[in-house]
Amino acid sequence: MALAQAANERMKFESTFMISALSGDGVDDLRKTLARMVPPGPFHYPEDQMSDAPLRHLAAEITRERSTASSSGTAVSIDGRDR
Question: What is the largest CA-CA distance in the chain?
Fold first, then answer.
């Protein structure tokens, strides 16, 4: 709290959010504020498509994420995929 108070005394912020990385407290307030601030715009890819990244990249990221949950120093390379 003291750090946030000191920052707010030095500079004018529109909002200050206290967020816990451990519990996730405060994330909803930040998310709602950001959603209000972002102007509406067109979809840049189909609504049912989660990303514009290639499937190969997404598969590597998911594999890397799941493998690092149990170990460290893991490298992931996707050489091929079934269609």
Answer: 57
